[in-house]
Inverse folding.
């Protein structure tokens, strides 16, 4: 049988690992669980499982559009942001063109581009951050996509509003700039990009958002893109029908209105981030200041060793070997009692 040998080097995605009974701080999930309103809406939708979902996700797209003051024609939903990335790549790349991103970032950018035959060029991070000048230097007239993860997964660092706008101004005219803001809800920096403002100025900007983090719906798999109507129309051309099921649409719709849950989620992240960074500083562990719901810190050795040691203590974190950062670990900002157990496990590891 004949298969595409250019895909041989594509490895399956490496998810955060855990084991039964361990506290899972390896996948940046909401420690409060799912939005209660979403849970209720999903339960109420169970009797409709014999029906096909709305293939256009009309109600959900309209609700998202109202939230961001856009037209529904500017919203494309998908089975998580992962599928949305393949929709973007599917309508914009082909063999012979290239995509640009960073060397140490979310692996699905490379997956989406190479799935449709594009080469991927990667710029090294600079002090844990995307480097605008290095990214722009990799671009040419064959560059069709640039993927920016902001805040970056796994470092939590960010590009400023001015830096993103500079990229949009200077990248080749043929290049779609994909700004993945999966963690942007947590960002507090004053100069964090005002991406909706940029979307109104630059037609080739595509913004990605998700219900997996702040809203606690990672298991329902709902992501979405905000884009110029023409870009969104092309994405809709390559979208599979019924890509968001009944339960996913119902849960996401309800989560959008659960303002109390959102406020609690942001508060627990702010408080947990303060505790987590104080802990790392007190033990003189190097870390990247984060605008997300996780912190990336240096462990001065193979990250997998620390991962295994903490897992023995009942705490799962994320070794970043698969991101090309073999001496770094990413830990999710958990609930207070989860952080207590992480702190205790770390102290036993370093002082035992």
């Amino acid at each position: 049988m004949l298969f595409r040998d250019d895909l041989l080097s594509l490895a399956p995605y490496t998810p955060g690992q855990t084991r039964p009974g361990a506290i899972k701080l390896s996948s940046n999930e909401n420690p409060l669980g799912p939005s209660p309103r979403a849970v209720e809406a999903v339960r109420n939708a169970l009797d409709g499982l014999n029906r096909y979902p709305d293939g256009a996700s009309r109600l959900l797209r309209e609700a998202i559009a109202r939230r961001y003051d856009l037209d529904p024609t500017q919203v494309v939903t998908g089975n998580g942001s992962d599928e949305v990335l393949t929709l973007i790549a599917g309508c914009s790349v082909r063999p012979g063109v290239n995509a640009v991103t960073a060397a140490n970032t979310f692996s699905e950018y490379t997956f989406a581009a190479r799935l449709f035959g594009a080469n991927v060029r990667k710029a090294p991070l600079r002090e844990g951050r995307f480097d605008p000048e290095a990214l722009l230097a990799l671009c040419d007239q064959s560059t069709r996509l640039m993927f920016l993860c902001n805040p970056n997964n796994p470092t939590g660092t960010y590009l400023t509003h001015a830096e993103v706008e500079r990229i949009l101004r200077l990248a080749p005219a043929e290049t779609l700039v994909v700004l993945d803001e999966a963690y942007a809800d947590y960002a507090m920096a004053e100069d964090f990009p005002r991406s909706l403002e940029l979307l109104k100025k630059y037609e080739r900007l595509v913004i990605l958002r998700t219900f997996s983090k702040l809203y606690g719906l990672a298991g329902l798999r709902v992501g979405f893109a905000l884009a110029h109507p023409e870009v969104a129309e092309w994405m809709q051309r390559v979208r599979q029908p019924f890509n968001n099921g009944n339960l996913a649409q119902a849960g996401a719709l309800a989560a959008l209105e659960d303002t109390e849950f959102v406020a609690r989620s942001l508060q627990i992240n702010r408080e947990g981030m303060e505790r987590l960074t104080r802990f790392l500083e007190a033990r003189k562990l190097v870390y990247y200041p984060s605008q997300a719901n996780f912190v990336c810190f240096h462990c001065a050795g193979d990250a997998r060793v620390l991962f295994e040691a903490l897992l023995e203590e009942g705490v799962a974190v994320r070794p970043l070997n698969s991101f090309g950062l073999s001496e770094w670990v990413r830990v999710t900002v958990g609930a207070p009692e989860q952080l207590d157990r992480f702190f205790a496990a770390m102290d036993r590891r370093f002082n035992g």
Summary: The chain has a mean pLDDT of 95. The radius of gyration is 20 Å. The CA atoms of residues 294 and 332 lie 4 Å apart.
